[in-house]
TrEMBL record, chain A:
InterPro entries per record: GINS_A (IPR021151), GINS_bundle-like_dom_sf (IPR036224), GINS_Sld5 (IPR008591), SLD5_C (IPR031633), Sld5_GINS_A (IPR038749)
GINS subunit domain mapped to chain residues: 72-146
Coarse class of the protein's main subcellular location: nucleus
Protein name: DNA replication complex GINS protein SLD5
Task of the protein: The GINS complex plays an essential role in the initiation of DNA replication.
Keywords, alphabetical: DNA replication, Nucleus
SUPFAM superfamilies: GINS helical bundle-like, PriA/YqbF domain
Automatic annotation (TrEMBL), chain B:
Keywords: DNA replication, Nucleus
Record's subcellular location: Nucleus
A cellular component term, taken from the record's GO annotations: GINS complex
Full protein name: GINS subunit domain-containing protein
Primary localization class, coarse: nucleus
Stretches of the chain forming a coiled coil according to its record: none
Any matching Pfam family: Sld5
Domain GINS subunit: from-to ranges: 51-128
Gene3D superfamilies referenced in this protein's UniProt entry, alphabetically: 1.20.58.1030
One biological process term in Gene Ontology: DNA strand elongation involved in mitotic DNA replication
Keyword Chloroplast: no
Family label: Belongs to the GINS1/PSF1 family.
Domain DNA replication complex GINS protein PSF1 C-terminal: 140-190
Native source organism of the sequence: Rhynchospora tenuis
Amino acid sequence: MRRRGGRSASGLKERKKRDRMESWEEEGSGGGERERKTDVEAMREAWRREKAAPELLEFEGELVRRLREQIQLQEDGDEDDDQDLLSSLRHMDLDRALFLLKSYLRLRLSKIQAHLFFYASTSAQLLSPQEHLFCQRSLHATSRHLHRSLLSLLPPHYQSLSRQSTSSDHDDMLHPPHLDTFVFCKPNTHVGPLQLDDLGDDIVDLVVDDLYVLRYKSVTALVRTGRIDLI
Amino acid sequence: MYARRAAQLLQELSSCEEGQLPPFNGDKFDQVIRECEEHSRQFQSLIRDKDIETKNEDHYGSFIHHLSIIRNKRCLMAYMYKRAEVIQSYRWYVGRVLPREIQDKLNFSEQEYFKNYCSVIDSYMKDLDLDLTVDMVPPKDPCVRVRVLSEIGEVSLGDHAVSLTKDSFHFLRRTDAEPFISQGLMEEFVE
């Protein structure tokens, strides 16, 4: 890429710029048989999956970290406005990648917020360390508010946040996320017959690249292993 | 009694537009709380000195009171929780400081909750070093047309300085304009 003008002629800057361009299109770490894709594409897929799934999926820590590094590199090296068109295109690309990242994080926050108790006690892999902190602090703030404005005013034995009364034998006021919602999905590898429910009555044959509308519960395991894509 | 008033409270809430809140109905709320206390008193008087095993009319009467309290609790919890959800959305769509007309609709605990929620979100964003409250919609243009709402003065953006006087129009890069827009000092001018 030619540089106009008499900016620093040091070879170091040239090399840095080349590295930057390469790292922006760096191959993501794909699985064995899947075709390799860029980090931005991988982020877009992770974002789409997170948007479609009714429950929180595993946090893509590595992907987020790599994407942030690349965005930072792009932002840092953007002093030279060589040709306005190219530079504004690059800006737009940067903006869109940043939007993907932020939207992904916001989606996850809203899911955590909807089921604070549930996610506060799940394994560490599902949430990033910052999300874990967020969950606990938010839980603390919410329960304090509810306790102060409502629960402490109710008759004794009815003041619990998680149980209707002291005669309940389980946390009947708390609900885990609903996994029964329907999702659009498309298998990307051969899956074959899938049992839709525990009774074994409904069996669906999943063919590669065909579009299906199924309950999320039936395909949870397949989504987690990446054999089926959510649209 | 028997959760009728609590249901009215919820009806008031549901008749409001999505994302908006009616003023906190402290009177009705207190009435429902007093109803719960009354139910509790009746409950205590019905089971006092009675053998817990006898299934007579007092036993079932006390059960009705217990269920009424549970129902009231459920309605009140739904009321408070729904309001809390809307308050959370204020941080994302309105900002850190609430305008007077919204503040007046919240009771004291809700105002405190808003402040606490803001600080929880802010510490999460600080940990990540990302401002998640900007870029809420997919960006269409790297540059935006903006109108300055309040006097900002001379600002150095990139390699040139811009004088941001009130009611002036500018064509700025999105990243430069975002912080001002989110603080309410500028607005995006859409044709």
